[in-house]
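Try this one yourself first.
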């Protein structure tokens, strides 16, 4: 948090984590640019995107980090997590294994970040309800167990994408004061 000339300026670093292909990059591109990429091999080294959000009349810069595919090799570096004040832990509702991995991602987050970090569990691809492998209740229960916010999203049809990021940003903002 820095002091700007016209008042305060807020910069929040938020990381997006979860197994490969759960839709992390598309959630970010949907939020930051309102774009979706249906054949995204496109995790082309964009480190982060910055999106300005208005919370209670304050201009907040959300700097949202994408793993750029490192998660495939279990090599998400500590630099990735450094300074993060929020996290979205993403799984794919049509792929049970990605849900089973959530605990591992939470452990990793815990080793790198303060416990006070604002955390949202995200069940992505909710547009694919007909081939779902993880029920909404399972997601919700895990979130309650682990004290996480929870939402199901679709980067494809935009369901809850803005809402998920905004809940995290608002929580970070509220925790500051
Ligand atoms: P990442 O590896 O976690 O960054 O995942 P990507 O964003 O690259 O997405 C992996 C694949 O899932 C791509 O083919 C996307 O088009 C697809 N995808 C991502 N989000 C959604 C979604 O909400 N719904 C559907 N149906 N497909 C999605
Ligand atoms: Mg990606």
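Now uncover the answer:
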């Amino acid at each position: 948090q820095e002091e700007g000339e016209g008042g305060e300026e807020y910069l929040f670093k938020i990381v997006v984590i979860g197994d490969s292909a759960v839709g992390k990059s598309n959630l970010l591109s949907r939020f930051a640019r309102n774009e979706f990429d249906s054949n995204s091999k496109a995790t082309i080294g964009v480190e982060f995107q910055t999106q300005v959000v208005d919370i209670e009349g304050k201009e907040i810069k959300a700097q949202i980090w994408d793993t750029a595919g490192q998660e495939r090799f279990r090599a998400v570096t500590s630099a990735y997590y450094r300074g993060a004040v929020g996290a979205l832990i993403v799984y794919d509702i049509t792929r049970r294994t990605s849900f089973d991995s959530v605990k591992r991602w939470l452990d990793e987050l815990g080793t790198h970040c303060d416990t006070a970090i604002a955390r949202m569990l995200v069940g992505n691809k909710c547009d694919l309800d007909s081939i779902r492998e993880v029920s909404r209740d399972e997601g919700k229960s895990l979130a309650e167990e682990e004290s996480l916010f929870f939402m199901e999203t679709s980067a494809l049809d935009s369901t809850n994408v803005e809402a998920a990021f905004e809940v995290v940003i608002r929580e970070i903002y509220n925790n500051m004061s």
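Discussion: Residues 20-26, 37-40, 43, 124-125, 127-128, 154-156 surround guanosine-5'-diphosphate (ligand 1) (CB under 6 Å). The beta strands are 2-4, 7-17, 48-55, 58-65, 86-92, 118-124, 149-152.
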